[in-house]
UniProtKB/TrEMBL annotation, chains A, B:
InterPro entries: Homeodomain-like_sf, HTH-type_TetR-like_transc_reg, HTH_TetR, Tet_transcr_reg_TetR-rel_C_sf. GO terms for molecular function: DNA-binding transcription factor activity; transcription cis-regulatory region binding. PANTHER family: HTH-TYPE TRANSCRIPTIONAL REGULATOR RUTR, HTH-TYPE TRANSCRIPTIONAL REPRESSOR KSTR2. This is AcrR family transcriptional regulator. Coiled coil: none annotated. Keywords: DNA-binding, Repressor, Transcription, Transcription regulation. The lineage of its organism: Bacteria, Bacillati, Actinomycetota, Actinomycetes, Streptosporangiales. Pfam families: TetR_N (PF00440). Residues 37-56 bind DNA. SUPFAM superfamilies: Homeodomain-like (SSF46689), Tetracyclin repressor-like, C-terminal domain (SSF48498). Residues 16-74 form the HTH tetR-type domain. It comes from Nonomuraea thailandensis.
């Protein structure tokens, strides 16, 4: 039976558990070894290679499912951020939450970027991006973030800086311990209007 | 005779002119059509396809030569920036110069990124990066740029923000006319210490 014809409710419980286990270990396995093979990922999930291929016929499909899963978990965490109080404090919370997730899933994202088209990667990020846009729009309205830069641009800069920090950590040019502070200071600096031209 | 054994002085003048013409039109041709084929690039340079293949046996070699050429031109322009006066003004000059070049060569860089390993792309950027690092280190020493962020990070952010703006322009989310201002405001904001915590 072709994969697309199989109704979701028809997957037996153990198959669902296997699928979830495979998706979850993929991120961790790639983190330890970005070149991890499909048999290695299957072994880490405690399933046979054929079981893995039954769920994910290609490496691209596995990476896409793992990335979607990581982003959903992020979305659940970001969804708990309340847009109340000082927008700068909420931005700091968002940065700290996102950084942990991006740092954990850096190897997965790098692997996915090699296999999936950029438009698909962007699509997967859409919900998280909407959450960031909502926060930044609110902060601009509150006068906490500069409104002379388009909100789309602030969203892009947030993404670039957090992912850029992950790349710098991977390259050994930034320590993981320092990354969160560096991201925070960079974004708050960029998004907060300077009150004096000179100082 | 193998390519590497051929002494540079032995290339005849017209072959040298052909090579230079091919390299120069590559950037412009890709800008009009990022998918431009080798025969189209040869036609734009006014040479035959076999002449082009004689200089650049693969698409990757052509893209590498064109990217190296664009970066050398950038380096010559950046090399004229004097590190005197207010570091913020020199940063603005550097941004304006770099932006024109990055915007012109966006399609070339995207094509090169598909064909060349990231380490090679980074290597080609090394001289331009050294110039940016020199300016930012000087500005930190002068107290114009915040010194609580590592200079390597400031270099990365400069690169990310300029290239990110080029991607946003390509995606239609930022107008080319607004890009230079947006880059400038973002980087000056990020690199300039906020004097007051709240305002």
């Amino acid at each position: 039976m072709a994969r697309d014809e199989r109704p979701k409710g028809g997957i037996r419980a153990d198959a669902r558990r296997n699928r979830a286990a495979i998706v979850r270990v993929t991120i961790e396995t790639l983190r330890r070894n970005p070149e991890a093979s499909i048999p290695e990922i299957a072994a880490a999930a405690g399933v046979g290679r054929m079981t893995l291929y039954g769920h994910f016929p290609t490496r691209a499909e596995l990476l896409e499912a793992a990335l979607a899963d990581a982003l959903e978990r992020g979305e659940r965490t970001l969804g708990r951020l309340d847009l109340v109080g000082d927008p700068r404090d909420v931005l700091v919370q968002l940065i700290d939450t996102s950084w942990v997730l991006v740092d954990e899933s850096r190897a997965l994202l790098a692997a996915a970027q090699k296999q999936l088209p950029p438009a698909r990667i962007r699509e997967l990020h859409e919900q998280a991006e909407a959450r960031v846009r909502e926060l930044l729009t609110w902060g601009q309205g509150e006068g906490a973030f500069r409104a002379d830069l388009p909100v789309d641009w602030l969203v892009s800069v947030t993404h670039l800086v957090i992912h850029g920090a992950a790349d710098e950590v991977a390259a050994g040019r930034l320590t993981p311990d320092d990354a969160s502070r560096v991201i925070r200071e960079t974004l708050l600096g960029a998004f907060t209007r300077r009150d004096t031209g000179d100082s």
